[in-house]
Amino acid sequence: MHKLLILSNQADEYLRLFQESRVADLACEATSSPEQAILRGIDCDLAFGEPALLSQVLPHLTGLQWMQATWAGVEPLLDPALRRDYILTNARGIFGAQMSEYVFGYLLTYERHILKRYISQQAKQWDETAPGTLCGKQIGLLGVGSIGAELARTAKHFGMRVRGYTRASESCPEVDIYFHPPDKLAFAAGLDYLVCVLPQLGATRQIVDEQLLAALPAHALVINVGRGSVLDESALVDALQSGRLAGAVLDVFLEEPLPPSHVFWRTPNLLISSHTAALTIPEAMVGVFLDNYRRWLRGEALRYRVDFELGY
Amino acid sequence: MHKLLILSNQADEYLRLFQESRVADLACEATSSPEQAILRGIDCDLAFGEPALLSQVLPHLTGLQWMQATWAGVEPLLDPALRRDYILTNARGIFGAQMSEYVFGYLLTYERHILKRYISQQAKQWDETAPGTLCGKQIGLLGVGSIGAELARTAKHFGMRVRGYTRASESCPEVDIYFHPPDKLAFAAGLDYLVCVLPQLGATRQIVDEQLLAALPAHALVINVGRGSVLDESALVDALQSGRLAGAVLDVFLEEPLPPSHVFWRTPNLLISSHTAALTIPEAMVGVFLDNYRRWLRGEALRYRVDFELGY
Q: Which of A25, A105, B76, B240 could form a disulfide with B108 if both were Cys (CB 3.0 to 4.6 A apart)?
């Protein structure tokens, strides 16, 4: 018998889904409270939930062998003061489709002038402005993991050219050409769209900086669905305010919710999507856990294992 | 030597493209004026251009053998009072990609709440409304020609289920299930999105009527990129005003430009895109002509030939 601590703001829904799945030899304790989790999860060997909550109880989970995080980013669990003597797996493979709908929804909104036409419509103006197209455009993916690969696949569907920027890997067949550090300015030159899907790491901090933004054509659009820390927010505001960059769509920010006084609220050609690009869908997340749990019972390697040194 | 009359509002651009293509044994006369065309095109055996202009000079083109229209819809040339003793080909195969970007741009705008989030942003509101998704949704294509087939392909890319409604053909492999007249209400039942790509014909007049709209679920979205005449405009207004239909996106109208007094300008949950869904790209259109011209010279059947009886 294994014992699973479910620590999540959606504890009730997850508990229901786990019970419906009728997994053999698995007892569940579910709560949204770290204090409760410390009391009830003391003898759990497995844990499941949000990294920001689980990091608070980690020192008390003395029997922990494997933790499945429900986020892609596991920053709270990477604190060097925390234990690393357990297997950590994160949420991957469930965000690609949502991210693809998000990114291409905004790219098409931009090219088809959907917001501009909506504003014209409020003024009863027949707006025949010719639309742009994705076809033939060049997209640059800053980070090509499972999400970047899904974006590349959709880009190819729409007839686009695809550049990838990665630490070293070149595993996605839909990427036409790869760039690696330190060639980020060569990567940026000539892009129509730059899409950042990088996690929060020391090496990705402010990778989208003044130099990278200056290397983009003035007609380019920047989308950040990675983490707020990968972007130099001031440099982006300067580029947008001066017209050196055509537009930006931001889902993630250094501070969330974005404070009412933040300059982004009054920056031109900037769209804010309030960290909604890809939500964890509980059904899909339980599926990821159950697949890994079967591997665990068979003694196999788990999918989506996090390397504590790399941070993803 | 063949002689081609180019009659188009973009006559200069088309003439330049034809000259750059250096086609052998082809002399071009280009004008945007029907009066000029009557004077200069009298001995042309070939014609190229907009149906609304060419229909005005057709009786004078006594030597005409083949006409290539630059529109998909050729209604002006279908007037029973006009000659039909020539080969008419229309513009096909060049609109699918644009139509796909248009339709999925609006579907994603809707599911991702892009307009709603834009409005929230104006009020500096952090709007975490959960987005919807295309994945798993059911799209119904009213008309499955070359444009409908491209829409089906993109729908499958996004993990959707696809229904097609056609007169008889079932040739598109991306359509999961076909419906034919008179089963339009069965076709509509359970659709999340209804996309109309039908041409203007007697048989398609007001095919989207009160009954069809009532057969759709209340959460459904209707998109019309076919012709204004296929839709009962009053029935759509009633459905939207009463909340029996979630939304509509219209590119085409019975009267264009839409008059300022039209009720559509003040109908809730209706987006107007001012007949911009798919523009004729001159380079692509010249490519269609040249491909057909080579077939013509070799005595082969031309592509995209219009059946005057069917009207497409």
A: A105
Q: Examine the residue annotation and report whether A275 is marked as an active-site residue of this protein.
A: yes
Tell me the Ramachandran region of residue B229: left when phi exceeds 0, alpha when psi lies from -120 to 50, beta otherwise.
alpha
Averages of pLDDT over each 10 residues, chain A, 312 residues: 95 95 90 94 93 96 96 93 96 93 98 98 96 96 95 98 96 97 97 94 90 98 96 98 98 96 97 95 93 95 94 86
Return d(Cα A300, Cα A174) in angstroms, integer. 30
Q: With an 8 Å Cβ cutoff, are A101 and B135 in contact?
A: yes
pLDDT at B257: 97
Q: Which residues in chain B show pLDDT less than 70?
A: none
Residues in chain A: 312
Sign of torsion, CA A279 A283 A289 A292? negative
Measured CA angle at B115 (ends B113, B119), to 5 deg = 115
Contact residues, chain A, for B124 at CB < 8 Å: 260, 265
- Asked if the Cβ–Cβ distance from B279 to A124 is below 8 Å, we say no
Contact B31, B7 (CB under 8 A): yes
Q: What domain range is B48 assigned to?
A: 2-94+280-297
The answer to whether residues A87 and A227 belong to one domain is: no
**pTM recorded for the entire structure:** 0.90
Neighbours of B85 (CB within 10 A): 6
Give me the total of CB pairs closer than 8 Å, taking one residue from chain A and one from chain B: 126
Q: Are strands B193-196 and A26-31 parallel, antiparallel or unpaired?
A: unpaired
| Cα distance between residue A148 and residue B190, in whole Å | 33
The answer to the question of residue A308 being in a domain is no
* In-domain check, residue B302: no
Inter-residue long-range contacts of B29-32, CB under 8 Å, 24+ positions, other chains counted: B29/B3, B29/B4, B29/B5, B30/B6, B31/B6, B31/B7, B32/B7, B32/B8
**Residues B207, B243 within the same domain:** yes
What values do phi and psi take at B100, rounded to 5?
-65, -45
What confidence tens digit (pLDDT) does each residue in B148-172 have?
999 999 999 999 999 999 999 999 9
Domain count, chain B: 2
Q: So what's the pLDDT on residue B66?
A: 98
Please answer yes or no on whether A131 and B98 come within 8 Å at the CB atom: yes
User: Looking at the partner chain, which of B114, B120, B279 has a beta carbon nearest the beta carbon of A105?
Assistant: B114
* CATH for A215: 3.40.50.720
What is the C-alpha to C-alpha distance for residues A88 and A305, in angstroms, rounded to an integer?
6
Name the pairing type of β-strands A193-196 and A138-142: parallel
Run of H or E residues at A238: helix A233-241
- Residue B311 is predicted with a pLDDT of 87
For residue A209, give the nearest of A196, A193, A219 by alpha carbon.
A196
A137-176 as b/e: b if 16+ CB within 10 A: bbbbbbbbbbbbbbbbbbbbbbebbbbbbbeeeeebebbe
**Cα–Cα separations (whole angstroms), residue A158 to A8, A139, A189, B15, B97:** 38, 11, 21, 30, 8
Q: Is residue A2 among the annotated active site residues?
A: no
**Stretch (H or E) spanning B30:** strand B26-31
Structure tokens at B98: 């644009």
Torsion angle, alpha carbons of B150, B153, B155, B159, to 10: -170
Residues B87 and B120 in one domain: no
